[in-house]
Amino acid sequence: MDLVIFAVGNPSRGDDALGPLLMDELERQAPPGVQLVNDFQLQPEHALDLHGRALALFIDAGAGTPAPFEFRELQAAAGHAVSSHAFTPQEVLRVYEILHGHPPPPAFLLCVRGEDFTLGEALSASAVKHLEAARRHLHACLAAPAAEHWRQQLAGTQGKTEALR
Amino acid sequence: MSFELETAANREGLRRVAIDPVSRVEGHGKVTLLLDDAGHVKEARLHIVEFRGFEKFIQGRPYWEVPVMVQRLCGICPVSHHLAAAKALDPVVGALTVTPTADKIRRLMHYGQILQSHALHFFHLASPDLLFGFDSPVQQRNIVGVAGAWPEVAKKGVLLRKFGQEVIRITTGKRVHGTGAVPGGVNRSLTAAERDELLAEADRMIEWSHEAVHLARQLHEANAALYDDFGLFRSHLLSLVRADGALDLYDGHLRLRDARGQIVRDAIPCADYDQHIVEEVKSWSYMKFPFIKELGPTRGWYKVGPLARVQNCDFIPSPLAEVERQDFIARGEGEPIHAPLAYHWARMIEMLHAAEIIRGLLDDPDLLSDQRMAGGPRGREGVGIIEAPRGTLIHHYRVGEDDLVSYCNLIVSTTHNNQAMNEAVRQVARRYLDGRQLTEGLLNHIEVAIRAFDPCLSCATHALGKMPMVVELRGADGALLDSAERGG
Question: Does domain B98-231+339-373 bear CATH number 3.30.470.20?
């Protein structure tokens, strides 16, 4: 399995811990062959972690994300969204293209809805619910770690998200 | 007290422009400009719009947790907080000095952090502005644009940063949230294999860092009129220096130079920082305004970071960086260089120094020793000061009989530069915005001035959608006239 999973977030900033919490679980039960990358935020060198991988998944908390989570395929983007020291997943993919001269592997985003990102706070009650839903979806992804399977899940996931709004 | 353009005389009748938040800096910053009907700038402020609560986050925790927990204050320089906390808590376990192995592994970790942070800033945050120009199309003005036009520059930036991250991973045991430094020393040494892994790349990092110094210098000299004048203000310079006056980013004593280059305070022990530095609170910003107590808030504010450090020291104790420092100093013709855009050149000199220091440390057998911890009679208080990538970082703790932190005071680098950044914003606003139509390119001039200081305005909340760039134009009655958003 040539899968790399990035989980991004600060464990001590409320719902920003959603990504690291899912990564903690993955680290205890990760299928062999899956590379796990945990960091506060994405940076250009994360493009190097994509090298040699057939599939990538970015897990992050999102403010304003449809609840309980959003799951979608990503494309490399050269946009002007460099809005902080942190990169977006799309920019990381674009850096990969530039470094290697060919497209990155198929990449997906699992963005879990967060509400409160205050330093020192625990997960919000709604984030706990979103985490559970995201966990089930993540396990379904890992059961069939192939881009074609994940694309098939997109329509169903979006339907569930709409129903929960 | 108030500085020129800090507070307008008749604020109610002025047009308000907000840049919220400033893009490509950490966290939530906001710039507001109040303009009169003729478009003249009457007030310019850089605000911090998020309360940090760092001290509250730390107080009440067991002291031994603190070097790990403080890494969560910042997603960009966690290692600086990690080391400052460990240094501050060394006396609590009686380690008034740490072992040579602990000292050298901590230094290796710190200079790895300096190298990766400076590489990130120059290649990924600043170079789009510097290579394309402040008024270039916003779609081009980012690292992806740089990578398209100068792929080798972008690639070296990525790999320099990657090397710094590898130094951190090897010295802390993990890529993030490592636990390498503990009160009293370090909890792991290097293996020969780990040392050799870094040695294999170290000389190349020096070579690329040297090239980066020359690139920064060329950019400065090719457009000297702009670089020497953009956002220019004069202030004191504050930093640590080694006992012999050398640049030392890990330890030393505090030195203050005035705007003309005269040393006005020297050899201030770190433990005495609070006898000299006080912080003023202003109602319009969550970030305080530090100044030197004896000089007062009007005269006693200062700047920190690479531009201060490279000029505050007497020499740099690594050969290639020292040559570059001398060339840099010569440009000032006997006076300190205060131009904010000179931060970039100075930052690259420090990156070269960091690469040289790392290379030198890797030859030291103490890195492989298991003499990692020191101790002695327990203490209850400690101050740790370190020169973080952005400037002087102060951690101060008191620990109770129950081993819980009872007092915590942090003064982070960006706070030291608060007044300096505000001054730069006012200078740019006065020069480039006054009486002119506001465009994205002109507003970017404000951001360019702020980014020169590489501020870290909040820390580590990066969640998708949390940080859009919003520009708001409001009429005198507060009504929203226009807005634009990018990023996020």
Answer: no
